UniProtKB/TrEMBL annotation:
It is found in: Cytoplasm. This is Histidine--tRNA ligase, mitochondrial. Gene3D superfamilies: Anticodon-binding domain, Bira Bifunctional Protein, Domain 2. Residues 364-396 are annotated as: Disordered.
Amino acid sequence: MQSSWILAIRSVRPSRRLAPTLTFRPTCLSAPASRRCFHISSPRPQDINPAIEDMAPKAPKFEIKTPKGTRDWSGADMVLREKIFNTITNVFKRHGGVTIDTPVFELKDSCRKPHPTGKYGEDSKLIYDLADQGGELCSLRYDLTVPFARFLAMNKDISQIKRYHIAKVYRRDQPAVKKGRMREFYQCDFDIAGLYDPMIPDAEIIRIINEVFEGLGWQGKYTIKLNSRKILDGIFQVCGVPEASIRPISSAVDKLDKMPWEDVRKEMVEEKGLAPEIADKIGKYVVLKGKRDLLEQLQKDEELAANPSMQQGFADMDLLFTYLDAFNAGHSVSFDLSLARGLDYYTGVIYEVVTEGSAPKVSAASADASAEKSKKKKGKAGEDEDRSDDPTVGIGSVAAGGRYDNLVGMFSGKTQVPCVGISFGIDRIFSIMRANQAKKERKNEVDVFVMAFGGGKDFTGLLKERSEIAARLWDANIKAEFLYKVKPKLQNQFKAAEANGVPFALILGEDELAQGKIKIKEMGLPEDHPLKEGELIDLKNLTKEVQVRIERKKQLDAIVAQAEGLRVVGGIKGEDVKVEQLAKEGEGGEEVKAEN
């Protein structure tokens, strides 16, 4: 006989304070087999142990923030950073650059060996070493140059290349985030590898530096400091620096952009063990700067001219100045004997780009007294403390590089591939441009905001028409957007456009559309401007009309940016009048033919 069962469920009122335990209890055993059942019940509240009331684990308490020396990027900051990336990339491609990519971490030995002090000299202490995660000791890359040298050593079929690389690097330096001194930051590198006639690639690198900063609107606001390791080493040798002390003394000289000569001399003598009279001899040379005239002055020094290292350096610099004249790239160069560059792998010409804000506002020596008072009150600052507001910390160089002919051989052991290159510090460039912005930066790159004009119960919102106009603009590669509302208020549409800094508005009205017209309005015009309320254009000419106005505004913005640059460096009297005249001329409309 087939049996059947009935499942009966009984439960008390549910409560989150109870930890239910289901029990099965057979009942009705005297009933026929076909009617037997089980009861399932949860425990009664009075049976619950209070100790297990809350079984959910508590979330740990911690401060939500980015690690020191890092930051998040969004909105207007991302727009500006992308502008910098695009400007630099376009210059790199113009000069025949091809891009590569390498791992964000390298084998630890690649960063620290085979050079006795590593490939970075005293800066090796700033390398982030990673824990052993599977048999290989690794470090986060300190720069993009050493990975490039390792890449060339592994790819022996590449004997010549113009390579560029844009990526993040990592340094355990004391951060000053507002000044672009980060622990995680972008570098944009361009290097020319291969055997060429002397100094031609070196001169092109300097031409590239000029193109990048002038493309960013920095005309007259930057200086390319130039020197040669051969000349600097020759000076040290003539002055009597022991061979083993040349690199440490060179690192001390490299601090002259941050410290006065007295402090650098003190480091040489007291920390590096250099004889005081030798330090004094060095001091007579490292304060000199100029252009070709300084080179000619040094060549007349018989003691320097007799040194083999100096002779090579003189020949290189003489050729370099000749090629810079041909490239029209020497106007921003300063031959500066204080430039040393701290990295040990440089072998020839070295350069560094500085601008207003690179040097600290207050020297470390002059700040000692106030620092001591501060330490007594607050205690000694740790090396992890952000120093954005410290006047003794400047932005530093915004680009740097030089010739490194032996670095590839440190990996391969045999093959040498001569290289010369430049590295742009994106975060430092960004911090300067962000601080100097005269107007609110756009949060995206949209050029046109499509709006609907109207109101009342019969207002449809013109969503279909707005969508069609946006599609036409997108098809013409014009950046555009509109508000995602069926019946948007005009005020809210303007607020959305203004919030993102969109320069133009296309305003649709039912009457205008019926006539085949649409209004275009440039945002932000002064109240007395004749086109403050916008102007009607033909729908059939829509994309051409919009493109003409966008291009005209870009030209005007470039003129204004250039004028701001002239004012910063003390522009000539009457420049404002000239700029205003050009701006007025640029506002004149152009006749646009109908689209075919």
